[in-house]
Amino acid sequence: MLKPTRRQFLNNSAGLLTSSALTTSAAQKSPLRIAIVGIGQHGINHLSGCSAEQLVAVCDPDTNRLAVASEQVPDALQYLDYRLMLDECELDAIVISTPIHLHSHIATAADNLGIHCYIEKPLAYSIQQVRDLIALDARSKLNHQMGNQHHGKAGYREAVALLKSGLIGSIKECHAWTNRPIWVQGNIKPRRQRPPKTLDFNLWLGPSQPVAFRRDLHPFQWRGWWQFGCGALGDMGPHLLDTVFEGLSLSLPTRVRAAAKDASTHHFPKASVVEMDVTSPNADPFTIHWYDGGWEFPLDRIGVNRPPANGVMVIGEHGRVFIPELGGKPQLIPDSGANLSWRFITTVTEYDHLAHWIAACKTGRKITNLAHGGILTETCQRGNVALYTLREVTDDVIAEYLEEPDRVPFVRSTWRTKW
Which residues contact 366 (CB under 8 A, 6 or more apart)? Predict the structure, then answer.
């Protein structure tokens, strides 16, 4: 008689699993049993971030990546296929730093096994997946968290507090910009070629619909593909817009418009401008203006002659707040004649975002969730829908696309069930 796999056993006793897994975590003073899936730039960093825990396994479909990981964690088991890893390994928690078309699939499988999930931003590829993960998380007693590493920075908390204070008055507009893309995008025709011998391309594709391998796909370059990536907005939007959404308690944009420069069938445009109309319970509606690729950037509106590569300027009736990337210290810029003063006092020290999640997993209580990360991700993907269709995107448009899988990217996709 064949012995059931760990997945089969746990799927047949899901209620018992959740309770016992949480009880174990509550009493747990010993290291978490963690696996990391996706050993790219973030995955390598997470190896160090999880070094105080028990790194049970690493997973990546590229053996070159696994070889790099083995130098840091030689005792960790190595897997090409995350499904086999979940079947065979006893895990408390998992860090997901793969290309985004795999995020939701891995997180859902892990949650079903009672495994806490740290999911790198953006949360998922499609709006349907984002909503499904938020609903899954709301039902779960596990600690799931979207990775956004600046959350523990003092500058992030100060910027949020400054916006919440209302010091600059009613918000008139917001401008966010990035030097991305720093990968291939634009009107190009990718050449087909054989995958590297080190890469199991079928496992890299996972549940995505199959395509021929191109050099501008792996590693790193997948970010510029409609089918696999999220473009500059999805890559940097969750970072740059995070403080604005948190500080002003913003909900999903009601209307989104976009202009694109040099898009193609396969790739995001070389540059883009996106406008998102947003509302706040404590403020009048205003528009967030997004710029990437250096196109149509309004130096006169943000009032900075030499802006940094990435940043946000929030403009109010009495002044402006400049917010640097990745938790840098914000700058208050009063309007001429406005008497504004600001001093930020906090007793909270800076903390590491990944370490905060690890600590939450050990409490036995649900501390983290995916709600805020979900809003940020869907906001960016609504912008990408507008970029792809060049159509104004509203709630009704998203509802329309949700009824027709695969009509446009980023809304609702058909996935392979076997690969």
Answer: 140, 141, 142, 143
**Would you call 321 helix, strand, or coil by DSSP?**
strand
CA–CA dist 228, 90 (Å, integer): 30
Q: Is 364 left (phi over 0), alpha (psi -120 to 50) or beta?
A: left
Q: How far apart are the C-alpha atoms of 67 and 74, rounded to whole Å?
A: 9
Q: Where are the beta strands (DSSP E) in 223-348?
A: 255-261, 271-280, 283-292, 311-316, 319-324, 331-334
Contacts of 247 (CB under 8 A, 6+ apart): 159, 160, 161, 162, 163, 164
Residue 152, classed as helix, strand or coil, is: helix
CA 337/CA 341 separation, integer angstroms = 12
d(CA 276, CA 258): 9
DSSP 192-209: B-PPPTTB-HHHHHTTSP
Strands 116-120 and 144-147: parallel
Contacts of 256 (CB under 8 A, 6+ apart): 274, 275, 276, 277, 382, 383, 385, 386, 392, 393, 394
Using CA atoms, how far apart are residues 108 and 136, in angstroms rounded to an integer? 8
- Whether the CB-CB separation of 61 and 82 falls below 8 Å is answered with no
pTM of the model: 0.91
Cα–Cα distance, 135 to 143 (Å, whole number): 14
- Is 362 exposed, middle or buried (CB count within 10 Å of its CB: 0-12, 13-18, 19+)? buried
Peptide bond into 308 cis (omega under 30): no
pLDDT digits over 189-232, tens only?
Answer: 878 999 999 999 999 999 999 999 998 899 999 999 999 999 99
The Cβ-side half-sphere exposure at 266, using a 13 Å CA radius, reads: 17
* Backbone CA torsion sign across 116, 122, 127, 131: positive
